Amino acid sequence: MHGNDKKPLFQMTWSKQLRYDGNMNDPYQIAPNYEKEITRAIAREFYQQFDSLVESDVIIIGSGPSGLVCGKELASLGVKVLLIEQTNHLGGGFWSGGYLMNKTTIAAPAHEILEKIGVPCKKITKDMYIVDAPHACSKLIGSAFDAGIKVLNLTVLRDLIIRGEKNVLEGVVVNYAPIYEMPKGTAHVDPIGLEGKIVVDATGHDAIAVQLLAKRGLYKEVPGNGPMWVAKSEECIMEKTGEVYPNLFLVGLSVAAVFGTPRMGPAFGSMLLSGKKGADLIYKKLQSKN
User: Fold this and answer.
1) Which end of the chain is less congested by CB atoms within 10 angstroms, N or C?
2) 169 vs 213: CA distance, rounded Å
3) Among positive and negative, which fits the CA dihedral 105, 107, 109, 110?
4) How far is CA 89 from CA 47, 151, 197, in A?
5) Does residue 232 contact residue 261 with C-beta atoms inside 8 Å?
6) In b/e form, how buried is each residue of 42-64, taking b as 16+ CB within 10 angstroms?
7) What are the two backbone dihedrals, phi and then psi, of residue 131, each rounded to the nearest 5 degrees?
8) What is the sign, positive or negative, of the torsion defined by CA atoms of 248, 269, 153, 73?
9) Tens digits of residue pLDDT in 4-27
10) Whole-model pTM?
11) Using CA atoms, how far apart are residues 137 and 142, in angstroms rounded to an integer?
């Protein structure tokens, strides 16, 4: 076979006319979508929504179970909620239990939060339930979207918006997260500001928002959580969930990190219940501002 006679590696059979004829009686005939239309739809929808996300009632940093519950509860009350997550997926550590085992324990009465969204909770003892972690996590994510939260994933918190002589917290500074996985100096991209009436630190062990306050001399140093003591940890988290700086609330494991209380390991009851308590406190504050 001579050079000009050489056939392409793949025959261009799909360059022929598409066979789609709009026959709705054929359940396996799929409608054609074209590349330019796909790209245009994605870009238009994203940036139209993004324009509305520049100002929110509540900005939640972190999409673990406490952040998801907090956002879901607030959004269901008509609050405009933006959830920021630095990874590509939501859910934090709620996708699995301890030691790569995908069963998760929930202390009563937090299991009721999951039961209300259709998660089967198996009773193990009088006060402890167990769930399939991927099922519970996916249901919680879905219910948060159903309630009306908006999400920016692959978005990392870099700083806070603080204004005036009284150092009023009025929003967050974020950037595209993968930039910070690149070698230093290879990508110079400025972050942007997003404004919100309330900011929620749901970043877990890192308590990033509070650490940024400490860096500015506006809060004490974050000690991190102590050694494991599940019952005490969950009790302390519920006691101390709330506002730690004007317009900044803590939920979930961020509470333990900021107050130096014990860690709880693969127990998620207080994560869920702290999110709900945080939402109740935030809603009351928003109502008092109006």
Assistant:
1) C
2) 10
3) negative
4) 20, 11, 26
5) yes
6) eeeeeeeeeeebeebbbbbbbbb
7) -135, 160
8) negative
9) 556 555 555 554 567 777 776 778
10) 0.92
11) 9
